[in-house]
């Protein structure tokens, strides 16, 4: 019984979700100083790069994974997949909207293709887990591959069919494949959250291990860390 209770408390303490409104405000204030050091990339900086959108659990984890991929210039954490305008982190995290935590990936198609980004997507989370990734539960953590064109939709669906035909996961894939409509960038303190908060319990126990598993399986897709 004690072991079960400890496990429940551990999961609760390492969830990608605010505990209370006051906690969110405190975290925002403490992290804001760090964010002042970061100069956001302008649209001019990102001209010439393509964009791709994915949702596969806590965006702190997903952002860090795509940031490690060669050819990726910038990644933003945010919200997508729902009808509500201007969603907030607290509303999304508590399942009060139809949005999922998602990422916006700016990439150089001459270095990394959309097909390879889709491979990264399916290879870095469990696409058979309905409305859940790790300790995070709820539709806001569902698996979604967004497409902006018929070509992208075809790439996603064909890759899913190949995974299913090979029975890679041993269970049916539940990833949603939906047209991209709008991406709402998350609050400033969420950007580069993993890199800026390495001692956070969720980052240590969930996010970093997930990133390391991805790196071990996709080492040829990684940026040269010496640069």
UniProtKB/TrEMBL annotation:
Residue numbers annotated as active site: 58
SUPFAM superfamilies, per the entry: Peptide methionine sulfoxide reductase
Annotated signal peptide: none
Function: Has an important function as a repair enzyme for proteins that have been inactivated by oxidation. Catalyzes the reversible oxidation-reduction of methionine sulfoxide in proteins to methionine.
First-tier enzyme category under EC: oxidoreductase
Pfam families: PMSR
GO molecular function, one term: peptide-methionine (S)-S-oxide reductase activity
InterPro entries: Met_Sox_Rdtase_MsrA_dom, Met_Sox_Rdtase_MsrA_sf
Annotated family: Belongs to the MsrA Met sulfoxide reductase family.
Catalysed reaction equations from the record: L-methionyl-[protein] + [thioredoxin]-disulfide + H2O = L-methionyl-(S)-S-oxide-[protein] + [thioredoxin]-dithiol; [thioredoxin]-disulfide + L-methionine + H2O = L-methionine (S)-S-oxide + [thioredoxin]-dithiol
Keywords: Oxidoreductase
EC code(s) of this entry: 1.8.4.11
Domain Peptide methionine sulphoxide reductase MsrA residue range list: 51-202
Organism: Flagellimonas spongiicola
Protein name (Swiss-Prot/TrEMBL): Peptide methionine sulfoxide reductase MsrA
NCBIfam families on file: msrA (TIGR00401)
